[in-house]
Design brief:
The complex is a heterodimer of chains A (236) and B (216). Chain A is of the alpha/beta class and 236 residues long. Chain A is built from 9 helices and 8 strands. The longest helix of chain A is centred in the middle third of the chain and has 13 residues. Chain B is mainly α. Chain B has one domain: DhaL domain (Serine Threonine Protein Phosphatase 5, Tetratricopeptide repeat). The longest helix of chain B has 19 residues. The radius of gyration of chain B is 16 Å and the shape is globular. Classes of the chains: A alpha/beta (236), B mainly alpha (216).
Chain lengths: 236, 216
Amino acid sequence: MIGIVVVSHSLALAEAAVALADEMVHGEGPVVAVAAGAAGGFGTDATEVRRAMEKAASPDGVLVLMDLGSAVLSAELALELGPPSEHAVRLTAAPMVEGLVAAVVRAVGGADLETVAREAEAALLPKVVSLAEHTPRPALVAVEADASARLTLVNPQGLHARPAAQIATAVGGLAAEVAVESGGRRADASSSLELMTLGAGQGTEITVSAVGADAAQAVAAVREMVEAGFGELEAS
Amino acid sequence: MGSLSVVEAVTVDRLVAWLSAFRDAVHEHGDYLTELDSAIGDADHGANLIRGMDAVMAAVEQSPGSAGDLLKKVGMTLVTSVGGASGPLYGTFFLRAATAAGDATVLDGPALLAALRAGLEGIVARGKAEAGDKTMYDALAPAMGAFEEALASGAEPDVAARAAADAAAAGRDATEPMLALKGRASYLGERSVGHLDPGAASSALLVAALADTLES
């Protein structure tokens, strides 16, 4: 079973999140080590994170969840303190509370590190989807797109957190408004959360359309990533 | 170039004096740093650095060996004592500088620059900051550039450090109109405009402390 580390600015916050996730465990659960607070107050301490990584160490790997920014800095620095871990240690962008619950549940089920990480990263999706219904937004990208393409998602997990973030990052810097459409829904391609609300899985056909000076470049960039399976294909 | 300036090279004792001067500076300007941080952050930058630098000076009291040993001790102490984002960032700065300085007990101008540059690269790797993001990078990067330029034109380390301090101060001032793109200040969006970045301000103090120390 994988081990889990929770890095938080607040010990109370981390312990409560762990207790919440622990409600989902009936029987043997994963080791969940906490590194939270610093110098008696809010903050994070990379040496504490390192100790937590060692405490949660497992041949199946360790998943690290973090709250705000400097928790990420401390977790990254922790990897550099001392020799590299013998086992995989993975920092995940998953939301701390939702991600921890999802991760604990999947870890108990015996899932491998890769799968647990993916589930944790997708843990925000149910909330995003249910709230998206309440937040109508003006249609993005006029009917007359400067460039568009119909593409099929070939990677196993479709537009989950990481591919969505890759697309958002790629088009975010371009002079173009880019929309991705799937199953009658439309998302702003510069928002990874909106892309995730499409719930587009493997084999789904999506339409990418763009207006603006960089429209063709934007569509080409998305096409390239989709066709390359977002770099996930070599594993399958 | 053959001149017999007393600061041709920087000894470990000089580095300790630099750290001590920085400790004094964060004490003197702690309220100011915290005030800057209360405008766009969590109002603890001054207190964090005071706690960190007090811990550093306590840790380096026992005479450390090489420049690398000293700087490593500084980095580890900051990591464990600062708490906020400046802990891992300043910590990484000194840890990377330590690796670059290695076993040397005396750093000449280029060696000092190499150590500082390695530290800056560590901050970039850690924080993914770029020029104009309104971070400590915006003070430190121009400082390194000025240091390097001064050395290249034949200046001694003290003169180069003063040029670096001036560039760091200008870089700090230039963060005022910037929109914060990193750290918790980035949550404020447009509201971050019109305030100096606290990290850039403390970084300018760090470089100024180096210049003051090498000139004395």
